[in-house]
Amino acid sequence: MNKHPQLLLLTLWLIGSQIAFGQTKTSVAKKSYDIAAFLYPAYASDDPRLRPFWPAGNGEWETVLNMQERFPGHYWNRKPLWGPVNEADPAVMSMEINQAVKHGVNVFIFDWYWYDGRPFMETTLDNGFLKADNTDQMKFYLMWANHDVVNTWDTRLNKYNENNVIWTGKVSRAEFEKICKRNIEKYFKLPQYYKIDGKPVFMIYDMPQLIDGLGGIEQAADALKWFKEETKKAGFPGLELQLTMWSINMNHSGFDGSKTKNPENAFVKKLGFTSATHYQFCHFANVDDDYLHILEGVKKEWARIDTAFDFIYYPHISVGWDNSPRTGHSAVVRNNTPDNFEKGLRMAKAYADAHPKQVPLITINSWNEWTETSYLQPDNVFGYGYLNAIKKVFVDEIR
After folding, report:
1. Where does the pLDDT of residue 25 fall: very low under 50, low under 70, confident under 90, or very high at 90 and above?
2. Where would one find coiled-coil regions in this protein (predicted)?
3. What is the model's pTM?
Protein backbone atom coordinates (compact mmCIF):
# COMPACT_ATOMS: atom_id res chain seq x y z
CA MET A 1 0.00 0.00 0.00
CA ASN A 2 1.43 3.39 -0.97
CA LYS A 3 1.76 5.72 2.00
CA HIS A 4 1.94 8.81 -0.27
CA PRO A 5 -0.95 8.59 -2.78
CA GLN A 6 -0.67 12.24 -3.77
CA LEU A 7 3.03 11.83 -4.61
CA LEU A 8 2.20 8.73 -6.64
CA LEU A 9 -0.51 10.56 -8.58
CA LEU A 10 1.83 13.49 -9.24
CA THR A 11 4.54 11.15 -10.51
CA LEU A 12 2.12 9.37 -12.82
CA TRP A 13 0.84 12.70 -14.15
CA LEU A 14 4.37 13.89 -14.89
CA ILE A 15 5.21 10.67 -16.73
CA GLY A 16 2.00 10.91 -18.72
CA SER A 17 2.71 14.51 -19.63
CA GLN A 18 6.20 13.68 -20.81
CA ILE A 19 4.89 10.85 -22.97
CA ALA A 20 2.14 13.04 -24.40
CA PHE A 21 4.54 15.79 -25.36
CA GLY A 22 7.34 13.48 -26.52
CA GLN A 23 9.70 14.48 -23.70
CA THR A 24 10.88 11.10 -22.43
CA LYS A 25 14.36 10.01 -23.45
CA THR A 26 13.00 7.00 -25.29
CA SER A 27 10.56 9.05 -27.37
CA VAL A 28 12.82 11.92 -28.42
CA ALA A 29 14.27 11.32 -31.87
CA LYS A 30 17.76 12.77 -32.21
CA LYS A 31 18.05 14.63 -35.50
CA SER A 32 21.33 14.08 -37.29
CA TYR A 33 23.03 16.12 -40.01
CA ASP A 34 25.63 15.10 -42.55
CA ILE A 35 28.41 17.65 -42.15
CA ALA A 36 30.74 17.20 -45.10
CA ALA A 37 34.10 18.98 -45.20
CA PHE A 38 36.11 19.24 -48.39
CA LEU A 39 39.54 17.67 -47.97
CA TYR A 40 42.45 18.89 -50.07
CA PRO A 41 44.86 15.92 -50.35
CA ALA A 42 48.13 17.84 -50.91
CA TYR A 43 49.53 17.40 -47.39
CA ALA A 44 51.22 14.07 -48.04
CA SER A 45 54.79 12.82 -47.96
CA ASP A 46 54.60 9.66 -50.04
CA ASP A 47 53.46 10.91 -53.45
CA PRO A 48 56.36 11.50 -55.87
CA ARG A 49 54.09 13.40 -58.24
CA LEU A 50 53.93 16.23 -55.68
CA ARG A 51 57.68 16.86 -55.79
CA PRO A 52 57.74 19.08 -58.92
CA PHE A 53 55.57 21.59 -57.06
CA TRP A 54 56.85 21.10 -53.51
CA PRO A 55 60.42 19.70 -53.64
CA ALA A 56 60.83 19.51 -49.84
CA GLY A 57 58.78 16.32 -49.91
CA ASN A 58 55.95 17.20 -47.51
CA GLY A 59 53.44 18.49 -50.03
CA GLU A 60 51.94 21.94 -49.68
CA TRP A 61 53.00 22.13 -46.05
CA GLU A 62 56.12 23.57 -47.68
CA THR A 63 54.14 26.63 -48.75
CA VAL A 64 52.64 26.99 -45.27
CA LEU A 65 55.91 26.59 -43.38
CA ASN A 66 58.16 28.83 -45.50
CA MET A 67 55.70 31.72 -45.74
CA GLN A 68 57.75 34.00 -43.49
CA GLU A 69 60.96 33.14 -45.34
CA ARG A 70 59.42 34.21 -48.65
CA PHE A 71 57.60 37.25 -47.23
CA PRO A 72 59.42 38.39 -44.06
CA GLY A 73 57.12 40.13 -41.61
CA HIS A 74 53.94 39.25 -43.52
CA TYR A 75 50.80 39.22 -41.37
CA TRP A 76 50.06 35.61 -42.33
CA ASN A 77 51.87 33.44 -39.81
CA ARG A 78 49.65 30.41 -39.20
CA LYS A 79 50.90 27.21 -37.60
CA PRO A 80 49.08 23.85 -37.38
CA LEU A 81 48.61 22.62 -33.81
CA TRP A 82 48.89 19.05 -35.05
CA GLY A 83 52.09 19.91 -36.86
CA PRO A 84 52.82 19.39 -40.57
CA VAL A 85 51.39 15.87 -40.50
CA ASN A 86 51.44 13.38 -43.36
CA GLU A 87 47.76 12.83 -44.06
CA ALA A 88 48.57 9.82 -46.23
CA ASP A 89 49.70 8.05 -43.03
CA PRO A 90 46.81 5.88 -41.75
CA ALA A 91 47.76 6.59 -38.12
CA VAL A 92 47.56 10.34 -38.75
CA MET A 93 44.29 9.96 -40.60
CA SER A 94 42.90 7.83 -37.78
CA MET A 95 43.55 10.72 -35.41
CA GLU A 96 41.90 13.16 -37.81
CA ILE A 97 38.85 10.93 -38.23
CA ASN A 98 38.50 10.76 -34.45
CA GLN A 99 38.65 14.53 -34.18
CA ALA A 100 36.28 15.05 -37.12
CA VAL A 101 33.62 12.70 -35.79
CA LYS A 102 33.97 13.99 -32.23
CA HIS A 103 33.22 17.50 -33.49
CA GLY A 104 30.35 16.54 -35.80
CA VAL A 105 32.07 16.21 -39.18
CA ASN A 106 31.01 12.81 -40.52
CA VAL A 107 31.81 13.08 -44.25
CA PHE A 108 34.98 14.02 -46.11
CA ILE A 109 34.61 15.23 -49.70
CA PHE A 110 37.96 14.41 -51.27
CA ASP A 111 39.22 16.75 -53.96
CA TRP A 112 40.06 14.15 -56.59
CA TYR A 113 42.35 14.73 -59.57
CA TRP A 114 43.19 13.01 -62.83
CA TYR A 115 45.96 14.33 -65.05
CA ASP A 116 48.11 12.95 -67.81
CA GLY A 117 46.18 9.68 -67.95
CA ARG A 118 46.43 8.79 -64.25
CA PRO A 119 45.29 9.87 -60.79
CA PHE A 120 47.00 12.66 -58.89
CA MET A 121 47.04 13.28 -55.11
CA GLU A 122 45.23 10.00 -54.48
CA THR A 123 47.53 8.73 -51.71
CA THR A 124 45.79 10.64 -48.91
CA LEU A 125 42.59 8.78 -49.72
CA ASP A 126 44.06 5.37 -50.57
CA ASN A 127 46.90 5.12 -48.05
CA GLY A 128 45.55 7.39 -45.33
CA PHE A 129 41.77 7.43 -45.07
CA LEU A 130 40.93 3.99 -46.41
CA LYS A 131 43.67 2.27 -44.37
CA ALA A 132 42.89 4.03 -41.10
CA ASP A 133 41.72 1.64 -38.37
CA ASN A 134 38.54 3.68 -37.85
CA THR A 135 37.65 4.42 -41.48
CA ASP A 136 34.23 2.85 -40.91
CA GLN A 137 33.29 5.79 -38.67
CA MET A 138 33.07 8.23 -41.59
CA LYS A 139 31.77 8.44 -45.11
CA PHE A 140 33.48 10.04 -48.09
CA TYR A 141 32.74 11.01 -51.64
CA LEU A 142 34.67 12.49 -54.55
CA MET A 143 34.70 15.93 -56.07
CA TRP A 144 36.46 15.69 -59.41
CA ALA A 145 38.67 18.79 -59.43
CA ASN A 146 39.02 18.81 -63.20
CA HIS A 147 40.60 22.24 -63.57
CA ASP A 148 43.87 22.94 -65.36
CA VAL A 149 47.10 22.85 -63.37
CA VAL A 150 49.08 26.05 -63.85
CA ASN A 151 51.91 27.55 -61.76
CA THR A 152 49.72 28.38 -58.75
CA TRP A 153 51.05 25.59 -56.54
CA ASP A 154 54.71 26.30 -57.28
CA THR A 155 55.73 29.34 -55.22
CA ARG A 156 59.00 29.57 -57.16
CA LEU A 157 57.07 30.38 -60.32
CA ASN A 158 53.65 31.78 -59.42
CA LYS A 159 55.11 35.22 -58.63
CA TYR A 160 55.66 35.72 -62.37
CA ASN A 161 51.92 35.36 -63.10
CA GLU A 162 52.62 32.95 -65.93
CA ASN A 163 49.50 30.85 -66.32
CA ASN A 164 51.30 28.10 -68.19
CA VAL A 165 49.12 24.98 -68.39
CA ILE A 166 51.17 22.14 -66.99
CA TRP A 167 48.33 19.61 -67.09
CA THR A 168 44.94 20.16 -68.66
CA GLY A 169 41.72 19.15 -66.92
CA LYS A 170 40.10 18.29 -70.25
CA VAL A 171 39.54 14.61 -71.03
CA SER A 172 38.31 12.77 -74.12
CA ARG A 173 35.30 10.45 -74.11
CA ALA A 174 37.56 7.41 -73.90
CA GLU A 175 39.43 8.93 -70.96
CA PHE A 176 36.14 9.93 -69.32
CA GLU A 177 34.83 6.37 -69.52
CA LYS A 178 38.08 5.04 -68.08
CA ILE A 179 37.79 7.43 -65.13
CA CYS A 180 34.14 6.60 -64.45
CA LYS A 181 34.56 2.83 -64.62
CA ARG A 182 37.57 3.04 -62.32
CA ASN A 183 35.74 5.13 -59.73
CA ILE A 184 32.66 2.90 -59.79
CA GLU A 185 34.75 -0.19 -59.12
CA LYS A 186 37.37 1.28 -56.82
CA TYR A 187 35.33 3.69 -54.70
CA PHE A 188 31.56 3.61 -55.24
CA LYS A 189 31.30 -0.01 -54.09
CA LEU A 190 33.01 0.68 -50.77
CA PRO A 191 30.70 0.75 -47.73
CA GLN A 192 32.27 4.07 -46.68
CA TYR A 193 31.27 5.79 -49.91
CA TYR A 194 28.57 8.37 -49.26
CA LYS A 195 25.26 7.67 -50.95
CA ILE A 196 21.89 9.37 -51.03
CA ASP A 197 18.97 6.94 -51.38
CA GLY A 198 21.54 4.32 -52.33
CA LYS A 199 23.00 6.48 -55.11
CA PRO A 200 26.73 7.28 -54.95
CA VAL A 201 27.34 11.03 -54.89
CA PHE A 202 29.86 12.33 -57.42
CA MET A 203 30.62 16.04 -57.72
CA ILE A 204 32.18 17.78 -60.73
CA TYR A 205 34.07 21.03 -60.32
CA ASP A 206 34.61 22.58 -63.75
CA MET A 207 31.94 22.16 -66.41
CA PRO A 208 33.60 24.19 -69.21
CA GLN A 209 36.63 21.91 -68.98
CA LEU A 210 34.46 18.79 -69.13
CA ILE A 211 32.35 20.11 -72.00
CA ASP A 212 35.32 21.28 -74.06
CA GLY A 213 37.17 18.01 -73.57
CA LEU A 214 34.18 15.91 -74.58
CA GLY A 215 33.44 18.03 -77.62
CA GLY A 216 30.39 20.11 -76.73
CA ILE A 217 27.13 20.27 -74.79
CA GLU A 218 25.44 17.34 -76.54
CA GLN A 219 28.49 15.12 -76.16
CA ALA A 220 28.87 16.03 -72.47
CA ALA A 221 25.19 15.30 -71.79
CA ASP A 222 25.53 11.94 -73.51
CA ALA A 223 28.68 11.07 -71.54
CA LEU A 224 27.04 11.94 -68.21
CA LYS A 225 23.96 9.91 -69.17
CA TRP A 226 26.29 6.97 -69.93
CA PHE A 227 27.95 7.46 -66.51
CA LYS A 228 24.56 7.14 -64.79
CA GLU A 229 23.72 4.02 -66.75
CA GLU A 230 27.08 2.43 -65.89
CA THR A 231 26.46 3.16 -62.23
CA LYS A 232 23.10 1.39 -62.45
CA LYS A 233 24.73 -1.57 -64.20
CA ALA A 234 27.06 -1.84 -61.21
CA GLY A 235 24.05 -2.50 -58.97
CA PHE A 236 23.17 0.96 -57.70
CA PRO A 237 19.73 2.59 -58.11
CA GLY A 238 21.41 5.49 -59.87
CA LEU A 239 24.01 8.23 -59.57
CA GLU A 240 23.62 11.41 -57.54
CA LEU A 241 25.38 13.77 -59.93
CA GLN A 242 26.31 16.93 -58.03
CA LEU A 243 27.22 20.25 -59.61
CA THR A 244 29.71 22.68 -58.14
CA MET A 245 27.58 25.80 -58.04
CA TRP A 246 29.43 28.81 -59.46
CA SER A 247 29.08 31.15 -62.38
CA ILE A 248 31.37 29.43 -64.89
CA ASN A 249 29.38 26.21 -64.52
CA MET A 250 25.93 27.66 -65.11
CA ASN A 251 25.95 28.37 -68.83
CA HIS A 252 27.99 27.75 -71.92
CA SER A 253 28.39 29.50 -75.25
CA GLY A 254 27.35 26.35 -77.12
CA PHE A 255 23.96 26.04 -75.38
CA ASP A 256 20.82 27.45 -76.99
CA GLY A 257 18.66 28.73 -74.15
CA SER A 258 16.35 30.84 -76.33
CA LYS A 259 13.39 28.50 -75.86
CA THR A 260 13.23 28.78 -72.09
CA LYS A 261 12.79 31.58 -69.59
CA ASN A 262 15.54 30.15 -67.42
CA PRO A 263 18.45 28.98 -69.60
CA GLU A 264 20.69 28.27 -66.61
CA ASN A 265 18.23 25.78 -65.14
CA ALA A 266 17.62 24.21 -68.56
CA PHE A 267 21.37 23.91 -69.08
CA VAL A 268 21.86 22.07 -65.76
CA LYS A 269 18.90 19.77 -66.42
CA LYS A 270 20.15 18.91 -69.89
CA LEU A 271 23.46 17.77 -68.42
CA GLY A 272 21.62 15.60 -65.90
CA PHE A 273 22.69 17.11 -62.58
CA THR A 274 20.31 16.32 -59.74
CA SER A 275 21.86 18.36 -56.94
CA ALA A 276 24.36 21.11 -56.27
CA THR A 277 26.41 22.77 -53.58
CA HIS A 278 29.15 25.36 -53.51
CA TYR A 279 32.86 24.78 -53.01
CA GLN A 280 33.84 28.25 -51.79
CA PHE A 281 32.21 31.60 -51.06
CA CYS A 282 34.79 33.18 -53.37
CA HIS A 283 32.99 31.59 -56.34
CA PHE A 284 30.00 33.89 -56.00
CA ALA A 285 30.68 36.52 -53.34
CA ASN A 286 33.09 39.40 -52.87
CA VAL A 287 35.35 37.85 -50.26
CA ASP A 288 37.31 41.04 -49.64
CA ASP A 289 34.71 41.91 -47.05
CA ASP A 290 33.46 41.34 -43.51
CA TYR A 291 32.32 37.77 -42.87
CA LEU A 292 28.90 38.78 -41.52
CA HIS A 293 28.23 40.92 -44.59
CA ILE A 294 29.26 38.00 -46.81
CA LEU A 295 26.77 35.78 -44.95
CA GLU A 296 23.96 38.22 -45.79
CA GLY A 297 24.80 37.79 -49.46
CA VAL A 298 25.02 34.02 -49.08
CA LYS A 299 21.53 33.87 -47.64
CA LYS A 300 20.21 35.89 -50.59
CA GLU A 301 22.01 33.56 -53.01
CA TRP A 302 20.38 30.51 -51.42
CA ALA A 303 16.97 32.15 -51.80
CA ARG A 304 17.73 32.90 -55.46
CA ILE A 305 18.76 29.29 -56.09
CA ASP A 306 15.55 28.04 -54.51
CA THR A 307 13.56 30.19 -56.92
CA ALA A 308 15.61 29.81 -60.09
CA PHE A 309 16.43 26.09 -60.08
CA ASP A 310 14.52 22.87 -59.58
CA PHE A 311 17.41 20.67 -58.45
CA ILE A 312 18.29 20.06 -54.80
CA TYR A 313 20.71 22.54 -53.29
CA TYR A 314 22.75 21.60 -50.23
CA PRO A 315 23.83 24.65 -48.22
CA HIS A 316 27.51 25.51 -48.05
CA ILE A 317 29.54 27.47 -45.52
CA SER A 318 33.16 28.54 -46.04
CA VAL A 319 35.48 29.27 -43.13
CA GLY A 320 37.17 32.14 -44.93
CA TRP A 321 39.50 33.12 -47.76
CA ASP A 322 43.09 34.38 -47.96
CA ASN A 323 45.46 32.71 -50.41
CA SER A 324 48.42 34.98 -49.70
CA PRO A 325 50.56 32.00 -48.58
CA ARG A 326 50.88 31.19 -52.27
CA THR A 327 51.27 34.67 -53.68
CA GLY A 328 51.95 37.10 -50.85
CA HIS A 329 48.77 39.09 -51.54
CA SER A 330 45.10 38.26 -51.66
CA ALA A 331 41.53 39.32 -51.12
CA VAL A 332 40.89 38.62 -47.45
CA VAL A 333 37.75 37.68 -45.58
CA ARG A 334 37.70 39.74 -42.40
CA ASN A 335 36.15 38.99 -39.02
CA ASN A 336 35.68 35.28 -39.75
CA THR A 337 35.99 34.31 -36.10
CA PRO A 338 34.68 30.98 -34.79
CA ASP A 339 31.71 32.83 -33.29
CA ASN A 340 30.79 34.31 -36.66
CA PHE A 341 31.44 30.99 -38.38
CA GLU A 342 28.92 29.54 -35.93
CA LYS A 343 26.37 32.05 -37.20
CA GLY A 344 26.94 30.69 -40.70
CA LEU A 345 26.46 27.14 -39.47
CA ARG A 346 23.17 28.07 -37.83
CA MET A 347 22.08 29.65 -41.09
CA ALA A 348 22.87 26.41 -42.95
CA LYS A 349 21.08 24.36 -40.30
CA ALA A 350 18.00 26.56 -40.67
CA TYR A 351 18.10 26.05 -44.45
CA ALA A 352 18.36 22.28 -44.03
CA ASP A 353 15.50 22.28 -41.53
CA ALA A 354 13.37 24.33 -43.94
CA HIS A 355 13.90 21.66 -46.65
CA PRO A 356 12.84 18.49 -44.81
CA LYS A 357 12.33 16.47 -48.00
CA GLN A 358 16.06 16.47 -48.80
CA VAL A 359 18.94 14.86 -46.96
CA PRO A 360 20.24 17.26 -44.25
CA LEU A 361 23.64 17.57 -45.94
CA ILE A 362 25.74 20.66 -45.29
CA THR A 363 29.11 21.20 -46.99
CA ILE A 364 32.01 23.15 -45.52
CA ASN A 365 35.18 24.56 -47.01
CA SER A 366 37.20 23.00 -45.70
CA TRP A 367 39.00 20.48 -43.55
CA ASN A 368 42.50 21.59 -44.51
CA GLU A 369 42.79 24.32 -47.16
CA TRP A 370 45.64 26.01 -45.29
CA THR A 371 47.05 27.98 -48.22
CA GLU A 372 43.60 29.44 -48.89
CA THR A 373 43.06 30.08 -45.14
CA SER A 374 39.79 28.18 -45.06
CA TYR A 375 40.34 25.25 -42.73
CA LEU A 376 38.77 23.59 -39.70
CA GLN A 377 41.96 22.07 -38.36
CA PRO A 378 43.28 23.71 -35.17
CA ASP A 379 45.91 26.42 -35.43
CA ASN A 380 47.81 28.95 -33.33
CA VAL A 381 45.19 31.67 -33.92
CA PHE A 382 41.84 30.14 -32.99
CA GLY A 383 42.85 26.74 -31.61
CA TYR A 384 39.95 24.31 -31.96
CA GLY A 385 37.49 27.19 -32.34
CA TYR A 386 36.04 26.25 -35.73
CA LEU A 387 35.66 22.59 -34.86
CA ASN A 388 34.06 23.49 -31.54
CA ALA A 389 31.56 25.70 -33.38
CA ILE A 390 30.42 22.69 -35.44
CA LYS A 391 30.25 20.54 -32.31
CA LYS A 392 28.15 23.13 -30.50
CA VAL A 393 25.59 23.46 -33.31
CA PHE A 394 25.38 19.90 -34.62
CA VAL A 395 26.35 17.69 -31.67
CA ASP A 396 25.81 19.36 -28.31
CA GLU A 397 22.55 21.15 -29.10
CA ILE A 398 20.70 18.30 -30.81
CA ARG A 399 21.23 15.57 -28.25
Report:
1. very low
2. none
3. 0.92
